[in-house]
Amino acid sequence: MSIFNRKTKKKHIEQFGLRIAECLESEMPQIKTAVGLSKIYGISFMHEPKGIYISRGYNPKEFEIINRNHKTCFNLSGISVLNKKENLYQPIKLYYQSDGLTRIEIDNPEYFHKTFDLNKVQKREIELEHLKMENPDRKTAEKILKSLSKEQIDLLELDYTFEIEFDDKLFYTILDMEDGNYFAVDKKGKVYRLNHDQTERVKMIADKPTDFFKIYKGQKSELEEIMNK
């Protein structure tokens, strides 16, 4: 196959995502911040709707920052890219999750970089369509915590639950202490404190979810001493 017929690659999307982040930096600086925190693992071409799906990943420390500060999900319009074949700027619909470019809706996505000059981007009137952010880890956590009452569930932070691995064991965060440390449950419902700064980073503090509420009444300050033991 001729090198001139090669399909769009991950490097092209990295280039395009950074160019958009620079274009939007004055009104949406969080997008450029998210670019520096994430890595594109791969891309795939969609057919309904036509476009490019971007798979992103994070190192644990960066993921904590993303999970705390980039709780977003939206369609973005107002960006146009130069269509080289027609010599005009064509609007493109973009989808962002956690302030990272996740989907590009475009015809003939396999040759996106051949049709468009990915360095020539124009910003018009930016419009955001905010969407509900789906979190599959929340569903897992809710099943684990099914013994709790609605009032107890409401005192936790399940909207932002994520799966985290320590010592080959999976945990699901239930409270973010906003310093890189968490309270979390395992799949058996045992509650742990996860503290990166302690020698014993993982420590069980309750044998079941209901026992956790014997020490937690809704104020994170109640847990600071336990977190640091």
Q: Which stretches of 5+ consecutive residues score pLDDT under 50? A: none
In total, how many beta strands?
11
Q: Number of helical runs?
A: 8
Largest sheet: 6 strands, antiparallel
**How would you spell out the order of helices and strands?**
HHEEHEEEHEHHEEEEEHH
Share of residues in strands: 35-45%
- Structural class determined from secondary elements: alpha+beta
Question: What is the CA–CA distance across the termini?
Answer: 62 Å
What is the share of helical residues?
25-40%
Mean pLDDT reading = 90
How many whole angstroms does the radius of gyration measure? 21 Å
Spatial strand arrangement across the major sheet = 1-2-5-4-3-6
Shape: elongated
How would you sum up this structure, described in words?
- The longest helix is centred in the N-terminal third of the chain and has 14 residues, at 10-23.
- Strand 4 and strand 5 (100-105) form a beta hairpin.
- 26% of the residues lie in helices and 37% in strands.
- The mean pLDDT is 90.
- It is α+β, with helices and mostly antiparallel strands.
- The radius of gyration is 21 Å and the shape is elongated.
- Helix 1 (10-23) runs antiparallel to helix 2.
- Strands 1-2-5-4-3-6 form a 6-stranded antiparallel β-sheet. Strands 7-8-9-10-11 form a 5-stranded antiparallel β-sheet.
- The chain has helices spanning 10-23, 29-37, 60-69, 112-115, 136-144, 150-154, 209-212, 224-227, and strands spanning 39-47, 50-57, 73-83, 88-97, 100-105, 116-130, 163-166, 169-176, 182-185, 191-194, 202-206.
